[in-house]
Design goal:
Two copies of one chain form a homodimer. By secondary structure, the first copy, chain A, is α/β, with parallel strands linked by helices. Helix content of chain A is 43%, strand content 15%. The first copy, chain A, folds into two domains: 1-140 and 312-341, 3-Layer(aba) Sandwich (Isopropylmalate Dehydrogenase); 146-304 and 344-370, Isopropylmalate Dehydrogenase, CATH 3.40.718. Chain A has an eleven-stranded mixed β-sheet, with helices on both faces. The longest helix of chain A has 27 residues, at 251-277. The first copy, chain A, starts with 19 loop residues before the first strand and ends in a 19-residue tail after the last helix. Chains A and B meet through helix 8, helix 9 and helix 10 of A and helix 8, helix 9 and helix 10 of B. Chains A, B: It is found in: Cytoplasm. Chains A, B: It holds the Pfam family FA_synthesis.
Chain lengths: 375, 375
Amino acid sequence: MVSSNAQSPAPRALENGGDVVISIDAMGGDRGPSAVVAGIAESADKNPEIRFIVHGNEAELNRLIAKKRGLAERCDVRHADGVVTMDDKPSQVVRKGEGSSMWSAVESVRQGEATVAVSCGNTGALMALSMIRLRKLPGVSRPAIACLWPSKSAQGFNIMLDAGADIRAEPGDLLQYAMMGASYARNGLDIDRPRVGLLNVGTEEHKGRSELKEAHELITQAAEAGDFDYLGFVEGGDLPSDRVDVIVTDGFTGNIALKTGEGTAKLVGELLREAFRNSFMSKFAAVLAMTSLKRLQKRIDPRRVNGGVFLGLNGTVVKSHGSADATGISAAIKLAFQLAKSGFQERLAARVAQGVGVTEQHDEDGAEPKNEVGP
Amino acid sequence: MVSSNAQSPAPRALENGGDVVISIDAMGGDRGPSAVVAGIAESADKNPEIRFIVHGNEAELNRLIAKKRGLAERCDVRHADGVVTMDDKPSQVVRKGEGSSMWSAVESVRQGEATVAVSCGNTGALMALSMIRLRKLPGVSRPAIACLWPSKSAQGFNIMLDAGADIRAEPGDLLQYAMMGASYARNGLDIDRPRVGLLNVGTEEHKGRSELKEAHELITQAAEAGDFDYLGFVEGGDLPSDRVDVIVTDGFTGNIALKTGEGTAKLVGELLREAFRNSFMSKFAAVLAMTSLKRLQKRIDPRRVNGGVFLGLNGTVVKSHGSADATGISAAIKLAFQLAKSGFQERLAARVAQGVGVTEQHDEDGAEPKNEVGP
């Protein structure tokens, strides 16, 4: 089934008075459309400027949306029969996924109806569909997934890319990740002059693979034009540190680092809970410490740093965690909104163009937006 | 300066009545020889079967050792003038390091005076020296560093290799890491039939780089002869899990994962301390929960899992963390002792030989030792 909006470009009818339109795939997550609609409702409550195009089973979505007061008038539901599952292979989805809610959600960005698409579906399929429908930005050979990493930085997290879009990266790709990551840090996290590091097994210049040394040279040359501070090589221990804002690596290493970090934080959390269950005294202490522990949990809660952003395409796509609940989905929508508001897509495209001809131009992407997205 | 024992093979004079002799580089750590001697004293107290050959500044070491009751008669001090610093490049150390305490410590293993060498010095230099002096085991092209990873397993940690000996690994190297890691798990952690996994960005067989698919085939074929269960691909999140005992990866990825895990655990620990400092109530709770928190800290204390083991050489070398204190050094010595006692070096060599001709033989490395190390 092809969703109606896939057929012909629709006008930006929904974007009244500067509202930002976000396109949402309501079907692909582990918790189904009710969690997604609950996340939409949470975001809608907090932010009156967002409108939504919601893709999936029309009857079910209308029923879920009707339950939330005031939500129906801010949502445009688009029927899609198909659902991309977590087990679907990306290649199959590209060939046969046209009737799916994921396809339809990406299509709304392609058609210009929405500024950013959000999906909790299968990452590989979402990237493959986004590549095929939105196409890569001119000059980009490998798009990347940028993720947020809880850290000691003032902003509370660092950006790491590529978190797993492509298991390979040439030196030129790593340069583009640096440019794109810096642009994301400026527009998504409000960091004027991001500090960028290249992930390696040591900080000395002679360390690491030859492609990293080459990338090191390229990024050093591009830093001034790219308006970022290049710190050189950083190590795994710097990912959660406050020394660096953007960490650049290939998607294989990035994915392993991401899952290692998640696994470690989870282990410590479990051991902590066990420790507090251990005796009457410690149970009592846990009750007393509740507020502090909740504050800690909030700080490292993966739901609050939910949202991998696909960079390097003609359109912005935010990948929410598959198991995200309403809080997680609302965090992903908030990120999508922030990026849409900042005119991120246009700025990113300008940065990439700059990276292609490295020091050719030096525009003011850190200053006021030139092309605000939406009318 | 060449230490005396480097000149001619010495008899195993120290190994009386089944004692195990450990060779210790007392100089290279961040905390200097006093921390190392304190660690030796701790180990000596706990374990009457160990004797030590201690390498470094003779006068200083004799003075430090004399302060610990009963330690002098269990230590043989070997004077070495040179100290390898953390900034020395491995290539320089190989050329000019002959008078150093590190060189001398490795030499004691080469000469057969000691079964295992322990050093807190510069990792790269220690590996380079060990390679040049001990030489690689026949059939090994890349030695590996195996580290212990705190985990939910019954034994409390998993083994990961290579943690950073070599940034590259061919499929054949990964196969040998699997064989060597399984042998280490049996002899170092008493796991009869280790579960081995190959680190990748997903568990499906089609995922990852082509060399990983090739290694996957090789390890699948070798598992039966190697007496281990091969689980196929595992992910970063499995490193601290109880699904797997030995995780195999190349040294680049392994080093990044290791430092990422350490950094994440450190961040969570710091945030936890902050949380408990936050209010009077939480400070009070922290006092009540002290026992539980200490138990947790002990569980994930990096000092207690201190000791990277160099695998694939004609002799066993344990690398202690550079910043290790007495507790950390004592943990590394304990590991060295366990490996020496189990006849690990001979068993490992047999396993590697088996890996070379893959399914040729099927010896009983899990059963009683055939060649107990030492008389």
